[in-house]
Amino acid sequence: MVANSTTLQDWLRAHRALLEAERRFADLATGFAAGSVTQQQLDQAHEELLALRMLCEAVFQKAVATIGRSD
Known about the structure:
It is a single chain. It is built from 2 helices and no strands. With about 70 residues, the protein is mainly α. Helix 1 runs antiparallel to helix 2.
């Protein structure tokens, strides 16, 4: 069985946002290593990344909890 489509779609959106945030963070980390990004910029992106990771996990847990239930 799979999670209902609403919660699954919520998780997919959160997961896509997380992947994009991880890509941006990697770009910023590269820029930081090259000296073109400040510590403050890197720290801000890191905080946003951590928040998205927590959101993604919470939405995933909700999706898993709805396995077998209909919309």
